[in-house]
Every structure is written in structure tokens, then in C-alpha cells.
Amino acid sequence: MSTDTARTAPAAGPTSPASVAERPRPAEGFHDGELAVQRRAGVTAEAARLSGMLAPGELRGGISRFLADRTFAVLTGRDQHGRLWTSPVTGRPGFLDPTAVTTLTVHTTPVAGDPLHGLPVGQPVGLVVVEFATRRRVRINGTLAAAGEGTLQIAVEQAYGNCPQYIQQRTLQLEATPAHDPVAPERRSSLTAEDDEIIRAADTFFVGTHHPTRGTDASHRGGPPGFVRIDSGRLWWPDYSGNNMFNTLGNLAVDSSAALLFADFTTGRTLQLSGTAAVDWTPHDVPGDDDGTGRRVHFTPESVVAGRLLPLHAAATAAYPYNPQLTD
After folding, report:
1. 7 phi-psi bin (left φ>0, alpha ψ -120 to 50, beta other)
2. Domains of the chain: residue spans and CATH
3. Which end of the chain has the lower number of beta carbons within 10 A, N or C?
4. pLDDT tens digits, residue range 225-252?
5. R_g of the chain computed on alpha carbons
């Protein structure tokens, strides 16, 4: 869904994929960070009713059928240096292939130039699969069990649907031939004026986070253009009301490493940011508290990759009808 929240723990720098893979997986249910956020937000009882969604997941029935028709997903994982990134993965219907009830075969990999190209096997990964046209999404978390030429295999540990909140309606079309000249990804340590334009125009982005024992997660965020603000090279956005599970911000309560993906669905341009995030609890209804939750997330970029990595475009778009209005 939309929002998650917590006071962020001490910053955690890049972690080696090997050390991540060796960490044991805990029992099901909410972890320590999620529970802390739920208590602070006063929604422990509401969240408890959804704890069953975190039980070991299987790719059966509706989830399996949903995956079969999708062309767009977002993957979170760590590169060969242990830095967290969030990347687009696209393909023809069927490229997300449930080859067993707990195995998802992805018939593509992050493209050359993407920071997750050649990502190491054995690490926790998170995947969010979105159908913009009907405002549906599924989150899949697990371990990257194998990778080959053009293929990833994920051992699935969690799989569940999220609500349609804040998903802007789009009809995505894969390009048989690129509509725009390719732009080789460029790496740098800070944002440019062009990057700022992409961020300020965005009505959608994706955020990746990590928990030391619960693994890695990819999540969707949406709102009106301008809901992501830029201040002195840092980003921040208000935390909108959601399902009260607080998966993302619960992770940030324990591990501040975070990764963002912005995608221009008209031009195919992508902006990937890796860094750290912190959550501030503010008085309700201060300027910028668009949804009145009293929470906002601050993100500090440490590494930037900008290019044109998205081989699709949006044929049409309609804003989510209940996006909060900007208040500053």
C-alpha cells in the first residue's frame, strides 16, 4: 500500500551480499521495526488484523494469473559492492513465470548499465509488480537463488497484494523498437538540474529498503506531481495514510539504507538513487504534511545513476482521484 513510518536507526552503510545471504530468516509476523512504528502511530490493533499477509507466500490462484500478464516490475537488491539499488525489469507477458508455488522465474535481468546488472546470487531481493491500468500490485520478497543469461530465479518467502491507493492510472506499451535514442547510464554522486526536473515532475516512484533478518523489499509511492520535494540536494516526501503495516518504514527503523527509482513513462528516462533515509515525526498539518499524518521521509543520495533504461511508454494516464493536495 502506501505508507510506512518510524524513527530511523543509525545509518547502515553498504553491506556485502555474502553477509546478507548468511543471515538467518526469522519467524513470520511483523518484525521489530514494523511493530515500533505501529506503536508510535497508534495503529497496533489495526495492523494486527493484517499480520496473516506476512505468512509464507505461495504463487497460486489469483497471484499466479496476475503475474502471467504483467510487463513491468521493480526489483530491489544489492550490487556487487553491497550497495542497495532499485531497478526496473520489463518483458512480454509471461516474463514473470511462477515455475513452482514458491519459485518465480524472471525471464529477464537488469540491463547493461543498470547498477543491478549482474547482481550477486544468494541475497535477499524484493519485487513489486504493478498493473497501472487497473491499479493493482503484488509484492514478492525472497532470495535470489540463481541467475543465468537473461534469467533470475527467486525463492519466494512472501507474496501478497496491496491496495490501489495512490497508483496513477496508465496503459503501458512495450516498444518493439525504442522510440527515443538510447542514453547510456551516467553515474555520479549528486543530483543535477535535469535530475531535479524529473523528481519534481514525478507522480510515481519506487523505494527499496532492507531489514537485517527479514530481507529486502520494493514498494510503490504515488501522489500529485510535486509531492517529492528537493531541499539542498536531499529529497523528502510526506508519508500518506495506508494499510498500517509499515513494511518500508519499519525496515528504515532498523536499517537506514534505501534506494529510489524514478521513471519517466513518456520518454523512458530513469533516475536511480542509492543512499540513506530517515523518518521525521512532525506536528500534524504543518506545511508539507499533505495527508495530515505527521510523518515525512528524508532521503540523502550517495550515488546516482541516470539514463534511459525503460523500453516502454504510457499511452494514457489518469491521476488517482484521492491524491492529497500539496500544502506548500
Report:
1. beta
2. 42-318 (2.30.110.10)
3. C
4. 999 999 999 999 999 998 888 899 999 9
5. 18
